[in-house]
Amino acid sequence: MTQPPHGARTLESLGRVHFVGIGGVGMSAVARIMVARGVPVSGSDAKDLPVMADLAAAGARIAVGYAAGNLGDAQTVVAGSAIRPDNPELAAARAAGLPVLHRSEALATTMADDTVVTVAGTHGKSTTTSMITVLLQRAGLDPSFAIGANVPALGVNAAHGSSRIFVAEADESDGSFLNYRPQVAVVTNVEPDHLDFYGTAEAVYESFDRFTALLPAGGLLVACADDDGARALAERTLARGNTRVVLYGTADDAEVKLHDAGPGQVWISTPAGRFAVELQVPGRHNALNAAAAFAVAVELGVEPEAAARALAHFSGASRRFEFKGGGRGVRVYDDYAHHPTEVRAALSAARAVAGGHKVHVLFQPHLFSRTREFAREFAEALNTADTALVLDIYPAREDPIPGVSSRLIADHLGSGGRLVGPDREAVQAVLAAAAPGDIVLTAGAGDVTAYGPLIVEALTVEAPGG
Question: H helices of 2-119, where?
Fold first, then answer.
């Protein structure tokens, strides 16, 4: 991916900006900040999504449905990753010779004059970005932010803050995180994923090397010492020189060291002292995310005691072990987990919440290519639940691959695992398994998220076995 020279594009130079696919969570985030920073914004989407009314109220010109005329007098066009090349607005923009930016390029331009903190990693980006933002807000720094998920504690997924700090989630899935120019970069973990784009694990690792190489002389990499990929990246970054590195985690050599003895027993220690941390979100992975947020805040001048206190105000990000409700003593959570490591972490958090009761997961694989690459690893992660129910693959952007189905995962499941059909069959299978005190987790990046409310409804209106 070619990179525009840093500083070649300014927010003022964009002129009037039109967003194709403005209702998407990432696109709406950029549009929201541009409107707040005085940029004339228009946009469209195939459906009338709730966020579009918010943008219209803020001053954007919004259209439902795609048509070339929606471009109006736009001088720059931003297109979402899901926009097809034959989209009439995108085609009209190219025909008119208008500059067409990827969402990440538009965001990079929006924060070009700020002190930029970007959060990258195969897992945990949204949660860690959210934690940093909430922490800085509570510490009085009021950053601008753009996050790939809605955050209840923030009310929105993006906002223009009064300080010159900008916190942004940096997505590696298509290499677009290389468009940013951070002063502080957080890497939560590095594992092979998105091989439909990268092709090989080596290409994934190389992309993260290129990401840390974007840090300026004196810039800071905050990397997780507990993750082999992030630790190796930190070592390679240090070897290049000019960049500072802070490791966080439970490892002995972590400068920001996490002491996690379970709920209510979390501390972070640094050379400045040992600080108790109260977390509302369960799981070791979230405790590690909190340590990363703490490290960033201290780097930006927040007192360690204040940073530790502020973490108590983080209540979670949308679809990150999000409580959906319950009935008959059964609690239902939903999680975006779509990689084996994420599934294992989410189930570990569920186990911690369940106490001595059982954990049941309804999992939907995301992408044929990811299922093909990680079928056995998905099964191993799912086998940590008492019951593992697996839906058909959610294809997203992919066409089917011959021989690839959810059966590849099911073949490696234990006695508590099996395939289930959609809709009522899946809901009834969950109801049959769950007993009072148990935890139900719906997991995956597809439309499995819709099952949580259906399960809650069934728990509250149906008799057992109904």
Answer: 25-36, 50-58, 88-95, 103-110
115/228 Cα distance (integer angstroms) = 28
Q: What would the pLDDT profile of 152-193 be if each residue is shown by its tens digit?
A: 677 788 899 999 999 999 988 777 889 899 999 999 999 877
The residue behind tokens 């090397």 is 209
Question: Please, what's the b/e burial string for 52-81 (b: 16 or more CB within 10 A of its CB; e: otherwise)?
Answer: bebbeeeebbbbeebeeebbeebebbbbbb
CA 172 to chain centre: 11
pTM: 0.72
Tokens of 127: 């949660």
CA atoms within 13 A on the CB side of 73: 3
What are the distances in angstroms from CA 65 to CA 48, 52, 82?
Answer: 8, 12, 15
Q: 204 and 198 in contact (C-beta within 8 Å)?
A: yes
Cβ atoms within 10 Å, residue 271 = 6
Kind and range of the H or E element at 116? strand 115-120
**Six-digit token string for 267:** 């501390």
> Domains, the chain, ranges and CATH?
13-102 (3.40.50.720), 111-313 (3.40.1190.10), 322-461 (3.90.190.20)
Residues 387 and 401: their CA atoms lie apart, in Å, by 28
Residue 422 CA to chain centroid, in angstroms? 26
Q: How far, in whole angstroms, is CA 302 from its chain's centroid?
A: 25
> Any residues with CB less than 8 A from the CB of 142 and at least 6 apart, and which?
136, 161, 162, 163
pLDDT digits (tens, 9 = 90+) for 455-464: 999 999 864 5
CA 201 to chain CA mean position, Å: 20
Could you give the residue ranges of the DSSP H alpha helices within 158-267? 195-198, 201-213, 228-240
Report CA-CA distances (Å) from 99 to 14, 209, 245, 370: 9, 29, 37, 33
Amino acid code (one letter) for 31: A
239 phi-psi bin (left φ>0, alpha ψ -120 to 50, beta other): alpha
| 78 torsion bin: left (phi>0), alpha (psi -120 to 50), beta (else) | beta
Element (H, E) at 430: helix 424-433
Residue 5: band (very low, low, confident or very high) from pLDDT cuts 50, 70, 90: very low
Q: How far apart are CA 52 and CA 286, in angstroms?
A: 31
CB 413 within 8 A of CB 375: no
